[in-house]
Amino acid sequence: MTNIEWVNAYQENLLGVFGQPQTCFTHGKGARVWDVDGKEYLDLLAGIAVNALGYAHPEIVKTISEQAGRFTHVSNFFTTPQQVEAAAAVKKVCAAGWGSEVQAEITSQARVLFVNSGTEANEAALKMALAAQPGGRAIALKGAFHGRTLGSLSLTYKAPYREPFAPFVGPTEFVEASVSGIQGVDPKGITAIFLEPLQGEAGVIPLAPDVLAAARGLADQTGALLIFDEVQTGMGRCGKWLAHQGICYHGKEIIPDVVTLAKGLGAGVPVGACVAMNERAASALKPGRHGTTFGGNPLVSAVVARTIALMEELDLPAHAARVGDAWIQAIAEAKIPGIKATRGQGLLRGLILEKNIAPDLAKALFKAGFIVNAPAANIIRLAPPLIIELAEAKTLIPALKEAIAQVELDLGKGE
Ligand SMILES: Cc1ncc(COP(=O)(O)O)c(C=O)c1O
């Protein structure tokens, strides 16, 4: 069957929430993926910041097939070596980037709950906060994206996502992502404060250290749990293991009570984690207060442990920092007409366009064999596999130049 035939068959068989798929893929290798018609694409989105190790990494293929030969699932009535090893590796990730004292504290107190997605990690974090300090409201930031299930949706800013499902979503106050926005909140009755250290869906917007510090201050003042959603930014994506690591304000480390992870955590297998970073958070949810059938099963756990080990071996967070900086510098030096500025960290970058042509530009680039996306009308998001090499990433530059010129020409004709 051809691409068109598969897409038509998709529409006859799948629910339409994702709209019409752009194509039907068959396989991938490294940062490249091929569709049914044999067309090759350079994937600069990595399945929305998921495929950190690229497609079909031989070590991940081996890990999955070896684990499938033992077993893939046992239920959470039991544990497995894979699950315990994966949790220990996740704790190591959460402690990385700090001085030895902070590392030792996190290592001794942190506890991991494996779930199956980013939204579930945030659901668990919300329940953790409600268990620690019941009855209050949540604070989230304007522009925030925390997921699509009802609890996480209540923390997600975009009205068209959230409002059709109200009032079943919880009481959340959305504040500006600024010090004054956070400090202007009435401190009475707060249960949870959620933020992404770098807002991905809002358009790749890093938060300043003083904003993170204000959130930490509000949490300390009110007893609310401070939750950093690192679903998109974590696992090396921003040039360090977690985007908030190493950020201090007036010499004081800013450490959240809870970290949520998913996306790159399993290099493509569906897995999320809600990590309680200290004893208070870790003891909030008593036995029986939360659960998941699949969470942390031996298959995904084996992959999580191997993914983290490979990222360590390949020094991928540092690689992401190096390649990301050099790539964005090369894009800036190319002085491409139509690109106003760039922002972001590591291999999570936004190109800010002069005009609101990002969706058309993403389509034109796709036609040219490059996968990117447009989280806002004037922003192109780049989030390639972390294994990408600079030379490969730089092939975007001439294509970008041509695609912008073509889109502007087409728009001109339509005017
Ligand atoms: C910051 C952030 N949190 C949560 C989610 C939800 O993750 P999932 O789609 O795995 O439920 C996403 C997904 O894009 C995200 O970017």
Distance between the termini: 38 Å
| Low-confidence runs of at least 5 consecutive residues | none
Tell me the strand percentage band.
15-25%
Main sheet specs = 7 strands, mixed
CATH superfamily membership of the domain at 64-313, which one? Answer: Type I PLP-dependent aspartate aminotransferase-like (Major domain)
Strand element count: 19
* Backbone CA Rg: 21 Å
Query: Overall mean pLDDT score?
Result: 97
> Which fold name is given in CATH as the topology of the domain at 64-313?
Aspartate Aminotransferase, domain 2
Major sheet: arrangement of strands: 4-14-13-10-7-5-6
Count every helix, treating DSSP H or I runs of 4 or more residues as helices.
16
Q: What does this 3D model show about the protein?
A:
The protein is α/β, with parallel strands linked by helices. It has a domain at about 65-315: 3-Layer(aba) Sandwich (Aspartate Aminotransferase, domain 2), CATH 3.40.640. About 40% of the residues lie in helices and about 20% in strands. It has helices at about 5-15, 45-50, 60-70, 80-95, 100-110, 120-130, 150-155, 160, 180-185, 210-220, 280, 300-315, 315-335, 360-365, 390-395, 395-415; strands at about 25-30, 30-35, 40-45, 110-115, 135-140, 170-175, 190-195, 200, 205, 225-230, 250, 250-255, 260, 270-275, 340-345, 350-355, 370, 375, 380. The strands form five sheets. The chain has a seven-stranded mixed β-sheet, with helices on both faces. A four-stranded mixed β-sheet has the order 1-2-3-17. Strands 15-16-19-18 form a four-stranded antiparallel β-sheet, with helices on one face. The longest helix is centred in the last third of the chain and has 19 residues, at about 395-415. It is globular, with a radius of gyration of 21 Å. The two termini are about 40 Å apart. The model has no long low-confidence stretch (mean pLDDT about 95). The structure holds pyridoxal-5'-phosphate. Pyridoxal-5'-phosphate binds near residues 117, 145 and 196.
